[in-house]
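User
Class, as today's exercise, I want you to study this protein, comparing sequence with structure tokens, and judge whether sequence predicts the tokens.
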Amino acid sequence: MLAIYIKEINSFFGTLIGYIVIGVFLIFSGLVMWVLSSTSVFEFSYANMDSFFFLAPVLFVFLIPAITMRSFAEESQQKTLELLFTKPITDKQIILGKYFANITLVLIALLPTIIYYISIYMLGSPKGNIDSGAIFGSYVGLIFLAGVFVAVGMLSSAITNNQVIAFIMAIVISVVLQWGFFVIGKLPVFWGVWDDFIQKFGIDYHYSSISKGLIDTRDILYFISVIFIFLLITHYVIKKKKY
């Protein structure tokens, strides 16, 4: 599994696209935090990173599929997936190796944003006047959100041999999981009775809960369950391709 993990990391940074994807994410998040008048931290009278954590899921919807689209689709195109199956490694190890490599790539993209927290911490009046607990919770929420999107992206890449189709498919599924249940729950047909119940199936409900700084085990179990389901389906798809 470690060999697969290292191979995926090296492969991503072995091309220019890897640096472009991470660079675009950091540029857009930086613009939101410091430049755009409607979201810039300088436009508000209190120190927080709400604008970043509000936009981050939107950026992740595009960033993560761009990272995961090559996971299996590229292997299938280059006929190296069959070669991988002949190695002394199980299907589960292949999937988990690729999964953790993709998660690591997302964390690498996310790591420089800690500078935003340090900057706002120093700019606070008085210094350090910032809700660190809420920010910590938001980062935890983002990591779990990334975990789900990576699992979705890997399934999309396993289903098709075309990286562009895998990219689009992952975006559509991620959008539905993130905001679809919220929209459905707000439809008048439910008369407000099932609103909360339906929204609990969506990522946004649990992400918003964790972002408040209250890390509830129910939210953690939700994310782990969704990740497990998508990885399980990916395993099924890979086994079908193998045989």
